[in-house]
Amino acid sequence: xxxxxxxxxxxxxxxxxxxxxxxxxxxxxxxxxxxxxxxxxxxxxxxxxxxxxxxxxxxxxxxxxxxxxxxxxxxxxxxxxxxxxxxxxxxxxxxxxxxxxxxxxxxxxxxxxxxxxxxxxxxxxxxxxxxxxxxxxxxxxxxxxxxxxxxxxxxxxxxxxxxxxxxxxxxxxxxxxxxxxxxxxxxxxxxxxxxxxxxxxxxxxxxxxxxxxxxxxxxxxxxxxxxxxxxxxxxxxxxxxxxxxxxxxxxxxxxxxxxxxxxxxxxxxxxxxxxxxxxxxxxxxxxxxxxxxxxxxxxxxxxxxxxxxxxxxxxxxxxxxxxxxxxxxxxxxxxxxxxxxxxxxxxxxxxxxxxxxxxxxxxxxxxxxxxxxxxxxxxxxxxxxxxxxxxxxxxxxxxxxxxxxxxxxxxxxxxxxxxxxxxxxxxxxxxxxxxxxxxxxxxxxxxxxxxxxxxxxxxxxxxxxxxxxxxxxxxxxxxxxxxxxxxxxxxxxxxxxxxxxxxxxxxxxxxxxxxxxxxxxxxxxxxx
Length: 528
Prior knowledge:
Blueprint: H1 3-10, H2 15-35, H3 38-41, E1 47-49, H4 62-69, E2 82-84, E3 105-107, E4 112-114, H5 123-127, H6 134-162, H7 164-183, H8 188-214, H9 222-246, H10 250-258, H11 260-267, H12 275-280, H13 284-297, H14 310-326, H15 341-365, H16 375-399, H17 402-422, H18 428-456, H19 462-483, H20 493-508, H21 524-527
Antiparallel strand pairs: 1-4, 2-3
Helix pairs in contact: 2-8, 2-9, 2-11, 6-7, 6-8, 6-19, 7-8, 7-10, 7-11, 8-19, 9-16, 9-18, 13-14, 15-17, 15-18, 15-19, 15-20, 16-17, 16-18, 17-18, 17-20, 18-19
């Protein structure tokens, strides 16, 4: 007897599964509020060099003080990182004149003055992470994703070794601790370390939530469950825009996005351990108890009776046979993903797809000001567009299959990014529409890859597989913000890079096997 057959007997999608899915959606809401927090945490407002000896210019307006002390760009705006070595009073007579001698232009010597109309404070204004220090500002996101990368490896192994629920609880507790420490940071080094550790913790949440819910749901409702869980990511996206709009001080913003983890910790009390994992690891009694609870909540009274009576007795016998078939004494590791030929191909191809999905998704998500919209509005619209994208994917993955949906969603993401390289900057409305379409395709690719990957790997290796692919994805996420620094080489080079990677990795998805309407594999032999 397969586990799917047992699920059908006790109710594969009833009140029990709905309760679990909604509880697991709470931490899912919290994830984008941290993963995309960099947009607001490290936002850089307009700024210019601080001008010394302001008392000398008491008779001049602010504009005139800037005119004689700060060089202009060709478009007439004041430069952010340079100043004149001495005031150029002749510019008051003719502001269109530009100094011919560049030797009088120097880098900022006395710090910077920031425009606080949009942000009370960010880490950029706190520690002057601008101009020559701009790389450190972008590196903040990279540090976070390095933590997520490490967490994917750690929690992928630990959740297969010690169970899904225990590791999810540990992840949430650590996320609260390190999130609050980040908010209390008194130096850039402290923030970098605590954000990295927050990334490690939240990686466990990201990795475990979907498979834990999926392992309790029957085949027919698996896609619906995956899409439902994913929709709450988009809700978190929209909530981030609202929270960031209301909280403009970076310390309190970190507190605001970390606090909801406490609610998730409390609600996790009602979520059971995965019965699939318990059976695969020979813990028959615990699996038996959870399955009886499932049957009772779903109204299958035949199974909601004492162990001595017939139906429950047969259930217990079936569980023992399944546990014996799983050979729980054998341990698996990440190396097991590459030992057999079919698993090796799945692991290599899915790793490439995950890299492309994350690289392009975070590349678009962290460029809120590049499409002509207000950054809060961009964040909100990018969250809104994800919901219809997920709805469409719900239909497509069941009609044309996982493989085609995955490949074309990622390829079209790349083409939309590439299109905005060609569209002139003055066409802001068209650029915004193409960007929003690209964000929709990007989220469709992310939604599909979570569902698809959880179906590709067998139960005994599912969390190892998710851990490995998440590790590769987070490498993409870690590199994505650093690619913006390539604009110093060529202004459009970051977008061209995101486009090329998305199209190439999307094409690799055609090499993966289809999983539509297939049973979840239990052991490696089911794959091979």
